[in-house]
């Protein structure tokens, strides 16, 4: 099932293809730096009505051309090895250059499962064996130094995403948010949003990131930053309404209080605030132009 962490774990390689160089260094693999990278179509469908789609497919050109297929994997799936073998075989046959599969995971058990060599042949003659390269919490660095995060923002983002379930993820997120404070908005926005997507499966990490952006990155205009600011404005608007009603000595029931605080429409909150100044009762701030109490 495709979800936000799934998309972030592979799409970050589309946005920052050079991230693979950083990942390969972390994993101790001597890949040659490509001279150019091309994002290729991910549709691996054949003429037959069987659709196969790799998550991300990149072509690295240079001294050693190669293809990189990136798959985001959130849990063990016994059917995946056969699909991965198909992807590798198909793109190798189509593009005629070496191909590597990189699997990105957020939990150690899935990462260790994905890293196992897989043989598709019988034990007497394993005709086809492939070894995925895996990036996950078991081998991705825990980047808690803002200077280190600033040196490679994409790798720092992948560090946050792959360690989303780590109890100490707050240190990674703080380093990343600090590193983003003095970079251009055009650079920071995609990093902010990839991080938010990648953390969305973990409520605690998501809230930590939202809190950091509300404080450290409040000047950015990404959708998530705007959403946080809108939530803050709505909260202040609701508090103003309740303050006016209570100052006038009007009775505010739990039901009315809940309705006001649950509203996230700034325009509607402004109308309620205007009515709160003169309404004879708290219930009547809701009555206007078809709104019922």
From TrEMBL:
Protein name: Transposase (putative) YhgA-like domain-containing protein
Lineage: Bacteria, Bacillati, Actinomycetota, Actinomycetes, Kitasatosporales
């Amino acid at each position: 099932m495709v979800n936000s962490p799934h998309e972030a774990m592979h799409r970050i390689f589309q946005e920052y293809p050079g991230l693979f160089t950083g990942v390969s260094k972390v994993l101790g693999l001597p890949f040659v730096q490509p001279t150019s990278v091309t994002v290729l179509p991910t549709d691996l469908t054949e003429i037959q009505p069987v659709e196969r789609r790799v998550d991300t497919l990149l072509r690295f050109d240079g001294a050693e051309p190669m293809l990189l297929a990136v798959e985001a994997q959130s849990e063990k799936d016994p059917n995946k090895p056969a699909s991965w073998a198909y992807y590798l075989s198909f793109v190798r046959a189509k593009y005629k250059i070496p191909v590597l599969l990189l699997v990105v995971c957020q939990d150690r058990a899935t990462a260790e499962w994905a890293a196992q060599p897989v043989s598709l042949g019988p034990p007497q003659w394993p005709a086809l064996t492939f070894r995925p390269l895996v990036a996950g919490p078991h081998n991705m660095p825990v980047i808690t130094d803002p200077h280190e995060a600033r040196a490679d923002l994409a790798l720092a983002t992948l560090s946050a995403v792959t360690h989303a379930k780590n109890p100490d993820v707050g240190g990674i997120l703080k380093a990343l948010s600090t590193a983003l404070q003095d970079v251009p908005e055009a650079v920071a926005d995609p990093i902010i949003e990839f991080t938010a997507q990648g953390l969305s499966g973990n409520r605690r990490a998501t809230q930590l990131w939202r809190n950091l952006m509300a404080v450290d990155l409040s000047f950015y205009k990404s959708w998530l930053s705007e959403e946080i600011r809108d939530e803050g404005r709505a909260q202040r608007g609701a508090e103003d309404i309740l303050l006016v009603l209570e100052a006038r000595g009007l009775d505010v029931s739990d039901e009315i209080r809940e309705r006001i605080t649950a509203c996230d429409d700034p325009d509607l909150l402004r109308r309620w605030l205007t009515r709160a100044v003169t309404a004879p009762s708290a219930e009547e701030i809701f009555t206007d132009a078809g709104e019922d109490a």
